[in-house]
Structures are given as structure tokens and as C-alpha cells.
Design goal:
This protein is α+β, with helices and mostly antiparallel strands and 626 residues long. 27% of the residues lie in helices and 23% in strands. A hairpin with a 5-residue loop joins β10 and β11. α5 packs antiparallel against α9 (440-453), α9 (440-453) crosses α12 and α13 runs antiparallel to α14 (604-625). The termini are far apart.
Length: 626
């Protein structure tokens, strides 16, 4: 038996003396995989073997003066379904690496030239290695060909075998791996995360239509993550796209230091929102980069959005997270930014809300205040009564934002029903259904924090509404808090009531938000305290119909008063706002100085002092009311 066995033909799929065909290679690979599966006794099904390459060394950061080394394994592999339903991947030993050509392709920044380096067979691992049957190949991008400090090199693996066998890694054509030169060293210049953005169309990235880009993200003490393929960048922010804003007021979309939105292919970006919880990450599809360029009072503290997010969190309000990052564009320092979480299904899941519930963003400066629907059949726009057909397309009023639920038609019906219920309260005085359709406890908490922070731009837009499908109740989710901690003057420090002057002005150009009861009232956003004072374009209709309905119900109004008193104590009188502002300012001061120098934003320390002074003044005003 032993002699007969020794004369038996070996099970190797081909002899090195002959050239195997692709069919024989595929048959041998399939046989080897099936044999391995049957020996394991856990595999229920084997699929068609695939010729592929897998990277084993895939650097995301390069060091200047050193070659960038990449390694990959190449061969046949397959996925198996185990008896327990798990997906397993195995390499087949039915592959002779001598018939493979493996190349490392790379491109430096936006060079048109694609350079190629032949990858060579690496020494085989020990027989005991689990991946011993997968031949390894190594290659290096020469240090002399790397870009300068902060630059990007993108690379990919191409493997070819007999009879047209082809594999690419990343597998999607046009996607790349990437590395940033001296990324860790650059990240070490700050205590904040560094976001590297690479866009060949710089002008396009500052307009409305998304343009492709690549992104690298580095947090201190963590590996660099590189994102390429399906990543886009565009500007974001308010303002008319086709003509100048009213009164010549510039929209945030046109700030010299733009606000940006980064959109990834699926939930690819890993965000760690709370730096004090190091192991909790959220995979997200979008992130927002807010520039803090034009803050109330003519100063730039860079603190308003992160301080507001911290206040909501401390008070238990479901709200997007925000943290500071340093943004570098195409290798150069671009600015100190606030990375803000996008309210979407990832946010809802993180916040403990149901992602399958209907959610809408209020986007119009006037019409998205949950006002009644238009009842006249001749009006083409249900939310815009004066928008007759001759005016062109209806304006966007509510933007559907529930990614997890594709049934927008049903969701719009739910929103319309909600608006009708609010109308019954506000016009008819019937509050009987208010507690059935509104999560009153959640809404009054959010209202209390908004009032405590004196967020002026919140009545008609800058919020989302979300419906919990289990009980049918709606709540508001705050958004775009860059105008929190409002001041009397947009472009300078000071108060309208200084030296005994009249604190409330009737002209359209001055909003004395700190001094005048119209805006500083705890009842701001009700029908007696609309956001705007001008009469043209019906500006005085910009009060919020949800806020007004809550304040019409005695029980809800009392609940709001209690929460506002608690917000005054918890946020202001406890010292939380001032202490958090000072601590954050200390952390970001070096990057704030760099940003202020680049963008001409003035004295950072004075801006922080002005913000702290605003919180003290606001606390004093609230104590008078309460």
C-alpha cells in the first residue's frame, strides 16, 4: 500500500513542465477549495473561485525620504457559507505564482502620469502560517517620487495571470488607496484631529455641485485613515443661489472661508464624536465642516457651535455632535473648522431615536415654520400661498432626510397631518391632540436650551422634525447653531440699550437681539415674537407653529417654564458654559491663531471674552424673566 501510494500521481493541479490552461486552473482551485471545505465539516456551500489580490501592507502615511512599501497576496480564493451561517474566505493552493505578474500603480497628487512598479515575490511564510498558500508580493514607491510634505500619493495593485486572469485592488475601477507624506508629523502640530482634503477642482469645491475629492483623517495617537472613490465635496450654507440676498446681507454660502459638506460612498467615514470615549465610533455617510467665519458681534471665537452642542448634551437634548478639526487642503493649512454630525439615520441610531421614522429638514427662511397648508386648489405650492404658477418652480420648503425609510410619499402625508394638528391648536385653540402628536417633554427641553443660548436663527429654519413611528409623536432636532449666543449687532460688539438708548428699533437693518424684548423673550418664536420684523415679503410671519402650539397649552407651557429654569441653573449659574468655553479656547488657541492670521479674523482672546460676557448678560436677562 505504501509503495502503491508513492507511485500515485500527485494532486497538484499542473506540472511545472507544462503551461496550464485557465479551465484547468479553475477546476483545480475549485477542487482544492471543496476538499478543504469537506475536511473542515463546517462549510455548507462553496462558490466559484475568484482570482484576486489582497493587500497585506497598505500604508496611509509616508515618511519623507523613505520608500513607501506595499505588499499584497495574489491567488484564487472563495467565500464559503458555514453551517452556522458565517461567511468564510479561503485561499486555494491551486496557484503557481510564477505565472503571475503583479504591479504597483501610483499617481502623485494630480499628475496625469500613472507610474508603475513591478512587485516581486516575497519569501514564503512558514508552513504553519494560515496564509501560506497565498503567494505574497512586495513593491515600493521610491522616496524620490513622493510628493512634498502634506502631499498625497494614490496607489492600486494590478495582478495578471494566464488566459486573461485579472485582478485589481481596490476592485472598483477608479478607486485608490492613498498615503499622505508626513501625516503623523503634521498631525503632531496640533492637539486636534487633522482632516486632509485633496481636490483637483478647487474652484468647483467652493460651489454647489459636488466635485470628487480624496480625504485623509488623523487623530492624535491613531492611525491615518484614507478615503478615496465616491467621496465628494461642495460648499454648504444659506443664501440665495440665483440673486443677492435681501438687504444686501451675504449668505454663509459665500463666505471667503467656505462651509463644506463631505459626502462618502455609503457609511464609510468613521467619526469619533466624543474624544473622552475613545473606543466609540460612528460610521457616517456625510460630515459637515463649518468655518465660524462670521459670528454674531463681529468676533470669531470658533466656540459657538461646539459650546451649543455641549449644552444640548449636558441637558439631555438629542442633538448633533460637534468637534474642532484642523483642515488642510491640497497639503496646505486651510483653517480651524468645526466638524458637525449630519442628522440622518446614523445620528438617529446613535441618539437612540428610531431611524425608520419620518424626518424632514426645515430649509426655507419663511415657509418651513410648520405653517398651515394652502387650501386653495389654484395654488401649485402647498407651503407657499403667494407662489403662483407664473413665478416658476415651487420653492424647497422641507427636505426629506429619513435615509432609512424610502417611502417619502407616506412621510409627506404624516408631515401634512402634523401641520394640520398644529393648525387646530393655533387657530382653533383645540389643544386636545397636542400631547398625542408632539413629544412635549422632548420639545420643551429643546426650547429651553435654545432660549438659554439665545439662538436667534431658529424659528423658521435650522432644525429638523422627526416622528417616532412607535407612538406617532414628533420632536425637533436643532441644527446649524453658528448664530447661538446672539448679540445686538452683527458686525461689532456693544448693546443697543447702551447709555440709555431705546433698545428696540423699528428699522429692518438692526436686530437688537440682546436688548429688545422682541427677541430676548422666553417666548421668542411664538406669534407675538416672530424672528423677523420687516413687513416686505411677509417677514413678520416667521414665527414657529410648533413652539406657538406648545405655549398655548397650559400644561406644556408650565413644563417649558420649569425646563427653562433648570437650563438657567444647569448651564449658566453652574458655570458650565463659561468653564467649557474657557477650557475649549485653551485647547484650540494655537490653531485659532493660525486661522485668524490666514483669514484676518482679529484677536481670539478678545473674541472669547466677548462670548463669555454674552453668556453672563443672557443669564442676567433670564433671571429677570424667571
Amino acid at each position: 500500500m505504501l509503495r502503491a501510494a508513492s507511485r500515485r500521481r500527485p494532486l497538484a493541479p499542473f506540472s511545472p513542465r507544462s503551461t496550464p490552461s485557465r479551465a484547468r486552473l479553475m477546476f483545480a482551485a475549485r477542487l482544492a477549495l471543496v476538499l478543504a471545505a469537506s475536511c473542515a465539516f463546517v462549510v455548507a456551500r462553496a462558490e466559484e473561485p475568484t482570482f484576486e489580490a489582497r493587500t497585506t501592507t497598505r500604508p496611509t502615511s509616508a515618511r519623507a525620504g523613505e520608500d513607501l512599501r506595499v505588499a499584497a497576496r495574489v491567488g484564487f480564493s472563495d467565500a464559503f457559507s458555514s453551517s452556522r451561517g458565517a461567511r468564510l474566505a479561503r485561499w486555494s493552493d491551486a496557484f503557481d505564482a510564477s505565472y503571475a505578474t503583479v504591479e504597483l500603480h501610483y499617481r502623485v497628487m494630480w499628475d496625469d502620469e500613472t507610474r508603475v512598479v513591478a512587485m516581486t515575490r516575497a519569501p514564503s511564510p512558514s508552513p504553519s502560517s494560515a496564509s501560506a498558500s497565498a503567494p505574497s508580493f512586495e513593491g515600493a514607491i521610491p522616496a524620490s517620487n513622493l510628493p512634498t510634505r502634506g502631499g498625497m500619493v494614490r496607489y492600486w495593485i494590478v495582478a495578471r495571470g494566464l488566459d486573461g486572469l485579472y485582478a485589481r485592488k481596490p476592485s472598483r475601477q477608479g478607486d485608490h488607496y492613498g498615503a499622505v507624506v508626513d501625516a503623523e508629523a503634521i498631525g503632531g502640530e496640533t492637539t486636534l484631529p487633522t482632516l486632509f482634503v485633496f481636490a483637483s477642482d478647487v474652484a468647483g469645491s467652493e460651489r454647489d455641485d459636488p466635485v470628487p475629492c480624496s480625504v485623509a483623517y488623523h487623530e492624535p495617537g491613531r492611525v491615518v485613515r484614507f478615503y478615496d472613490g465616491g467621496v465628494t465635496i461642495r460648499r454648504r450654507g444659506s443664501g440665495r443661489r440665483d440673486k443677492a440676498n435681501m438687504f444686501g446681507k451675504g449668505g454663509s454660502k459665500d463666505w471667503p472661508k467656505r462651509k463644506f459638506k463631505l459626502d462618502f460612498r455609503g457609511k464609510a467615514f468613521r467619526a469619533r464624536w466624543d474624544e473622552n470615549v475613545p473606543d466609540v465610533e460612528t460610521k457616517v455617510e456625510e460630515i459637515n465642516l463649518h468655518s465660524s467665519f462670521d459670528e454674531p458681534g463681529g468676533t470669531t471665537s470658533y466656540l459657538r457651535e461646539t459650546l451649543a452642542a455641549a449644552a444640548f448634551k449636558r441637558f439631555g437634548v438629542k442633538a448633533p455632535e460637534a468637534r474642532h478639526v484642523v483642515v488642510r487642503r491640497n497639503g496646505e493649512f486651510f483653517g480651524l473648522y468645526v466638524m458637525v454630525e449630519q442628522p440622518d439615520d446614523s445620528f438617529l441610531a446613535r441618539a437612540g431615536l428610531d431611524p425608520s421614522g419620518s424626518m424632514f429638514k426645515a430649509v426655507h427662511w419663511k415657509y418651513s415654520n410648520l405653517r398651515p397648508l394652502v387650501q386653495h386648489s389654484w395654488v401649485p405650492c402647498e407651503f407657499a400661498p403667494e407662489w403662483e404658477s407664473g413665478w416658476g418652480p415651487c420653492p424647497e420648503v422641507y427636505r426629506y432626510a429619513a435615509v432609512a425609510d424610502p417611502d417619502e410619499t407616506r412621510a409627506v402625508g404624516e408631515l401634512k397631518a402634523f401641520i394640520n394638528d398644529l393648525d387646530a391648536v393655533n387657530r382653533g385653540g383645540d389643544t386636545s391632540r397636542l400631547w398625542d402628536v408632539v413629544d412635549v417633554n422632548a420639545v420643551v427641553k429643546e426650547m429651553a436650551v435654545q432660549t438659554a443660548l439665545l439662538h436667534q436663527d431658529r424659528c423658521a429654519k435650522n432644525y429638523f422634525v422627526h416622528r417616532n413611528p412607535s407612538d406617532g409623536k414628533w420632536r425637533r432636532i436643532p441644527w446649524d447653531m453658528e448664530d447661538a449666543f446672539a448679540t445686538d449687532y452683527r458686525d461689532r460688539d456693544g448693546r443697543c440699550d447702551a447709555n440709555g438708548r431705546e433698545p428696540c428699533r423699528g428699522d429692518s437693518g438692526t436686530y437688537c437681539v440682546m436688548s429688545c424684548e422682541w427677541w430676548n423673550s422666553p417666548y421668542f418664536c411664538d406669534e407675538n415674537h416672530p424672528q423677523d420684523i420687516f413687513t416686505e415679503s411677509d417677514g413678520r410671519s416667521t414665527w414657529n407653529h410648533l413652539v406657538n402650539a406648545v405655549l398655548k397649552d397650559g400644561g406644556a407651557r408650565d413644563a417649558y417654564a420649569r425646563e427653562l429654569q433648570r437650563a438657567l441653573t444647569t448651564l449658566h449659574l453652574s458655570g458650565f458654559l463659561e468653564d467649557t468655553a474657557r477650557a475649549t479656547a485653551e485647547k484650540i488657541k494655537n490653531d485659532a491663531a493660525r486661522d485668524a492670521k490666514k483669514w484676518g479674523r482679529g484677536d481670539f482672546a478678545a473674541s472669547v471674552d466677548a462670548l463669555v460676557r454674552q453668556t453672563r448678560d443672557r443669564a442676567a436677562t433670564l433671571r429677570e424673566y424667571l
